[in-house]
Amino acid sequence: MHCTARSTGSSRPWRADGPDLLKLLGIEIGAPPEDRGTLGRLLERNQALRDVFTGDRHLGKQLLRLQKWQSKRLMRSHADLHANPRYRLAVEFFFNELYGADARRRDSDMIKVQRAMERLLPREGLEALCLAVRLETLSQELDADVARALPPGGITVARYAEAYRSTGRRADRERQIALTTEIGEYLDGVVRKPIIRGLVRLARGPAHAAGFGLLQEFLERGLDAFEAMHGAKEFLGTVRDREWRAMERLFAGTADPFEFDASERRTKQRAIPG
Q1: Does the pLDDT at position 272 exceed 50?
Q2: Roughly how many angstroms between the first and final C-alpha of the chain, as a whole number?
């Protein structure tokens, strides 16, 4: 179940102090009553996973090494997109935020004020945040499995591929890619609706006053990144197709699953005078 549902577009007035959702300029604010509390449960699960190896120092360090390695891998796989000014912010948002230095603090802040967020944020912005938490939770579960399967020593493509393959969970890997696309589509949809985009900006002051300034900044960075693209279809499709291909090559045991060697050969060939 998602935290919220998309707006129906109804213009029927709602009471701000009753069980119904507040309607502001035809935009729904907050989570519907039946979904309130879902965000809090997602956040608590996500926060607990950050401490999954608290009692095992070796695995804790291995997990951190793995996450840094994966972040660098993602940036390398999509270096051409990062080099394009149109996509740079989106690449940084997707591939740096997941393992960002403020992730724990952001989790803590969100848990403290999740009830306020469920009342104050535009529903579509709230849904994008819920999807982001779902993606983080799934990614942390998968990372923990790979960390357990990695042999001692440094992480190489071959060692990573073997550990990745040994954990299985193909359906979850597919869901991980699908969630990334879904989050992007939500953010792209929000920036195409000036009213919702404006409401997110107007929430900046109240968000900091209510204690979820970090979360508000996280949401705004995502929206800024997608606004700069002026259309995210090509970007999202490219990332989805590359990650899906890498997943298939990893499960198939294909050498050079991320095609780094092939990319380097192409680069060298272009550098050789004709």
Answers
A1: no
A2: 57
Q: Which residues contact 151 (CB under 8 A, 6 or more apart)?
A: 159, 163
- Measured CA to CA, the distance from residue 59 to residue 63 in angstroms comes to 6
Residue 77: CB atoms within 10 Å: 19
> Which residues are 23's β-sheet partners?
28
Alpha-carbon Rg for the chain, nearest whole angstrom, is 20
Give the pLDDT confidence of 19-38 residue by residue, as tens digits.
344 454 455 655 555 555 67
In total, the chain counts a number of residues equal to 274
Handedness of CA 93, 99, 100, 103 (dihedral sign): positive
CA 122 to CA 30: how far, in whole Å?
6
> Which residues does residue 49 pair with via DSSP β-bridges, in sequence order?
none
Report the distance separating Cα 132 and Cα 121, nearest Å. 15
Element (H, E) at 70: helix 57-77
**How do residues 118-136 score in pLDDT, each as one tens digit?**
666 667 767 777 888 888 8
